[in-house]
């Protein structure tokens, strides 16, 4: 556990100090602030527009950070041969994968907290009152992105960083459509299509289930029980994916 | 007779390369033994299998057949400096060594003490809080040696520790290896710089094409040729 913590802290320091990350975050904040302009051209819907555009920007930029850092992290260690230093010490491959993921969780927490707080402040200024629901939506985006990060790390143990990035983004998109895949099972008369749809539904994480953006923007009441259950499901999904990544990584030679 | 700290027996390693997964035999039956408190030089032309042998010894690669026995208690008692080391750009030297110490489970006080002592040993006290991306090659090599010694290992494996160093850097690395020998450590290092090998090693092995083709002491080599370089060329070209 000490090793996992050491690798996590090291990963956090290494990624949070990366200038590329700072550039992306600054750009994201500018984009979120761009919602002010969009709000100004919408009649009487400034706050709603700001929330809608801002949360979309948080998701988009969060996804870029999550996928590209997660994809390059393991790959960079192998390519630049820092793994030689780690694995010539009594460090297990599982501790490496777990530590890397936890370090990235910390980095993503800082990035999303920054973007979320900025959006929260802007919505507060526009609406005249603070809306904590913006922070709740940001927290759920965080859960989605952690899942995408775990999947991307898994893919990065199999292939190149670019492939892992592309597949990570594909899983994010597919995760938004997961419910539609389930709907296919009800429509299909063909048992093969039905079985295939179920397999896809089980494999692809159901990210849409914890997506509360529409509910927050529309100021609807959220089904907290269901959201908590789906969050637990995604947490279990992350553990399984990381365990698989560790198994694959254990077979690698350097 | 002193015990063997490394015993490699009939080691074979085959890897699949390229799109068609062509099988390449890198090691073709390596036999090697390194005794305790020895400074052992592993020599050979590029592609002879020196680095692969070291990687198999460390468990970074699995042998296709043959065996590796370490006379120390696992990797916790081994230190390793890879060839052309590259470390984390955005960590300082002190942070990097602290991180390495944490991997061995050292507590904060031991860590601080050990890191401070090693920074002094490798003459990097002044650059201790500078990010590693600003280090010169020689400084990276020295911080690499420091991380290899962070656990006070019994066996130290150094892959081309003098490569790319200026004369001052080479002298400093040589002094570090000498101090390790004085402290009873076993050192196995790969090198192309035969004058350094001559100066530091008690025994050497020469590899060619995945096999050890000659093993003996430096004196035995020098009994057959005027210089180590001449002996090396004679053995490798035989």
Q: Could you describe the 3D structure shown?
A:
The complex is a heterodimer of chains A (254) and B (238). Chain A has eleven helices and no strands. Chain A has 254 residues and is mostly helical. Chain A has one domain. In chain A, α6 runs parallel beside α11. The radius of gyration of chain A is 20 Å and the shape is globular. In chain A, 44% of the residues are buried. The model of chain A has no long low-confidence stretch (mean pLDDT 89). Chain B has a single domain, classed as Rossmann fold (3-Layer(aba) Sandwich). Chain B is 36% helix and 28% strand. A six-stranded mixed β-sheet of chain B has the order 5-6-7-3-8-9, with helices on both faces. Chain B is globular, with a radius of gyration of 18 Å. The interface between A and B is medium-sized, with 25 and 33 residues.
Question: Care to give the gist of this entry?
Answer:
The complex is a heterodimer of chains A (254) and B (238). Chain A has 254 residues and is mainly alpha-helical. Chain A is 82% helix and 0% strand.
Shape of chain B: globular
Return the CATH class of chain B.
Alpha Beta
Radius of gyration of chain A, in angstroms, nearest whole number: 20 Å
Helix content of chain B: 25-40%
Number of strands of chain A: 0
Number of domains of chain B: 1
Q: What is the chain-wise order of helices and strands of chain A?
A: HHHHHHHHHHH
Q: Note the gap between the termini of chain B.
A: 32 Å
